[in-house]
Amino acid sequence: MLTIGLVIAALAAPAWATETVTYAYDAKGRLIKVVHTGTVNNGVTVDYTHDNADNRTNVKTTGSPN
To answer: What pTM does this model have?
Structure first.
């Protein structure tokens, strides 16, 4: 019976994941880059470009989540 109790406790343990998201802005305050690091989406970077009217014109995602 003790073995069954230990198995149940092991299966009920939470899975911990960490992630840090870093945001970069240009001189006009527009979002230009988002970088994900950690165990969830490690290595994913998103770059944004804008036109002269401050509209986002392109979104480029590089890397892939774990």
So the answer is: 0.70
